[in-house]
């Protein structure tokens, strides 16, 4: 077993136009590490230590931490695969706020599986690992959805296929900047899923299908403006925005400052503005900082969608 550290970036689930089937990784342009880190080192017995800016928001006992569940799940999968599982000391550096809409649990899950797999000599391929990550994410949020774990693990913008290949990467326009703003409050993904209707009206279903198809087509044609024009959520945002104070005001201000689209990141409360100029993205970050942030935990970042997802370093 090798000692390794894995970093897994924050992500935007849904990207407004693809509820549960589209997601994008995030990398702040100023190099801020917006993602969790997990270290795995050989040890006599399993342990988990948690530190970092949002460690205090997690349950105090390590048994309740999703990283511990990842370890046990990974060991079981290893043994079923004919390998012996070894104990290790894990450390989670928790950079992402919990219940933020930035794929916080996904980031911990991806960093944990990535570190465990590399440490064990990479017995599992990407598809198998991604399936395990989705399984663990589903245990937390109430149903399996890959729109955070897939972009976090693979990088770029990913489209979920619904078959054994799970996710494919889409071409992201070079011109795109994404401003994200976390308000500082927590929204439970499970609750934000519960408030959605169980049936969607025919008109919204047709709009959803058309927009997602146009979005993917436009990305492959390099038509970045046409793609941005359909970044519009008819499935979740109409129900979820009531949980987000000042959401409509922030949308209006962002669009007036040059945003091509504005929406909820995952299940919120983080919002995102899609821009084609870095100066617009920075100005919008300043506006959202003033209008949307509610306490000292909040922040805003201007990001790119990085080609790289999880990163591993041998120690
Ligand atoms: N390492 C971890 N990271 C994040 N949440 C964890 C972790 N370990 C346990 N949890 C628990 O999992 C739950 C995560 O809830 P939820 O899915 O709403 O948050 P999230 O993954 O941060 O959301 P989002 O995807 O919107 O960022 C919380 O109850 C949290 O205490
Ligand atoms: N697709 C998920 C993402 C959760 O971050 C949802 O919107 O519930």
UniProtKB/TrEMBL annotation:
<keyword id="KW-0791">Threonine biosynthesis</keyword>
<dbReference type="InterPro" id="IPR006203">
    <property type="entry name" value="GHMP_knse_ATP-bd_CS"/>
</dbReference>
<comment type="function">
    <text>Catalyzes the ATP-dependent phosphorylation of L-homoserine to L-homoserine phosphate.</text>
</comment>
<dbReference type="InterPro" id="IPR036554">
    <property type="entry name" value="GHMP_kinase_C_sf"/>
</dbReference>
<keyword id="KW-0028">Amino-acid biosynthesis</keyword>
<dbReference type="InterPro" id="IPR020568">
    <property type="entry name" value="Ribosomal_Su5_D2-typ_SF"/>
</dbReference>
<keyword id="KW-0067">ATP-binding</keyword>
<dbReference type="GO" id="GO:0004413">
    <property type="term" value="F:homoserine kinase activity"/>
</dbReference>
<feature type="domain" description="GHMP kinase C-terminal">
    <location>
        <begin position="241"/>
        <end position="293"/>
    </location>
</feature>
<keyword id="KW-0547">Nucleotide-binding</keyword>
<dbReference type="GO" id="GO:0005737">
    <property type="term" value="C:cytoplasm"/>
</dbReference>
<dbReference type="InterPro" id="IPR006204">
    <property type="entry name" value="GHMP_kinase_N_dom"/>
</dbReference>
<keyword id="KW-0963">Cytoplasm</keyword>
<keyword id="KW-0808">Transferase</keyword>
<dbReference type="GO" id="GO:0009088">
    <property type="term" value="P:threonine biosynthetic process"/>
</dbReference>
<feature type="binding site">
    <location>
        <begin position="97"/>
        <end position="107"/>
    </location>
    <ligand>
        <name>ATP</name>
    </ligand>
</feature>
<dbReference type="InterPro" id="IPR014721">
    <property type="entry name" value="Ribsml_uS5_D2-typ_fold_subgr"/>
</dbReference>
<dbReference type="Pfam" id="PF08544">
    <property type="entry name" value="GHMP_kinases_C"/>
</dbReference>
<dbReference type="InterPro" id="IPR013750">
    <property type="entry name" value="GHMP_kinase_C_dom"/>
</dbReference>
<comment type="pathway">
    <text>Amino-acid biosynthesis; L-threonine biosynthesis; L-threonine from L-aspartate: step 4/5.</text>
</comment>
<dbReference type="Pfam" id="PF00288">
    <property type="entry name" value="GHMP_kinases_N"/>
</dbReference>
<feature type="domain" description="GHMP kinase N-terminal">
    <location>
        <begin position="65"/>
        <end position="155"/>
    </location>
</feature>
<keyword id="KW-0418">Kinase</keyword>
<comment type="similarity">
    <text>Belongs to the GHMP kinase family. Homoserine kinase subfamily.</text>
</comment>
<dbReference type="InterPro" id="IPR000870">
    <property type="entry name" value="Homoserine_kinase"/>
</dbReference>
<dbReference type="GO" id="GO:0005524">
    <property type="term" value="F:ATP binding"/>
</dbReference>
<protein>
    <recommendedName>
        <fullName>Homoserine kinase</fullName>
        <ecNumber>2.7.1.39</ecNumber>
    </recommendedName>
</protein>
């Amino acid at each position: 077993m090798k000692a390794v550290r894995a970093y897994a970036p924050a992500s935007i689930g849904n990207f407004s136009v693809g509820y549960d089937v589209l997601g994008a990784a995030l990398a702040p342009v100023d190099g801020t590490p917006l993602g969790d880190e997990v270290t795995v080192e050989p040890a006599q017995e399993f342990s988990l230590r948690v530190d970092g800016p949002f460690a205090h928001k997690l349950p105090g006992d390590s048994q309740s931490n999703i990283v511990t569940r990842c370890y046990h799940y990974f060991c079981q999968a290893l043994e079923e695969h004919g390998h012996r599982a070894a104990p290790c000391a894990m450390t989670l550096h928790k950079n992402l706020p919990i219940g933020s809409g930035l794929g916080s649990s996904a980031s911990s899950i991806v960093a944990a599986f990535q570190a465990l797999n590399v440490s064990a000599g990479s017995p599992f391929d990407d598809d198998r690992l991604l399936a395990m990550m989705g399984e663990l994410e589903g245990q937390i949020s109430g149903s399996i959805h890959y729109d955070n774990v897939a972009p976090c693990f693979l990088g770029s913008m990913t489209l979920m296929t619904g078959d054994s290949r799970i996710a494919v990467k889409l071409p992201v326009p070079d011109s795109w900047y994404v401003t994200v703003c976390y308000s500082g409050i927590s929204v439970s993904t499970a609750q934000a899923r519960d408030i959605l209707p169980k049936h969607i009206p025919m008109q919204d279903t047709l709009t959803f299908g058309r927009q997602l198809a146009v979005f993917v087509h436009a990305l492959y044609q390099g038509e970045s403006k046409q793609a941005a024009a359909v970044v519009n959520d008819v499935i979740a945002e109409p129900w979820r925005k009531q949980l987000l104070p000042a959401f409509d005001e922030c949308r209006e201000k962002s669009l007036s400052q040059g945003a091509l689209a504005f929406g909820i990141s995952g299940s919120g409360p983080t919002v995102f503005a899609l821009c084609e100029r870095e100066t617009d993205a920075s100005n919008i970050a300043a506006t959202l900082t003033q209008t949307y942030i509610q306490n000292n935990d909040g922040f805003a970042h201007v990001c790119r969608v990085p080609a790289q997802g999880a990163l591993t370093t041998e120690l």
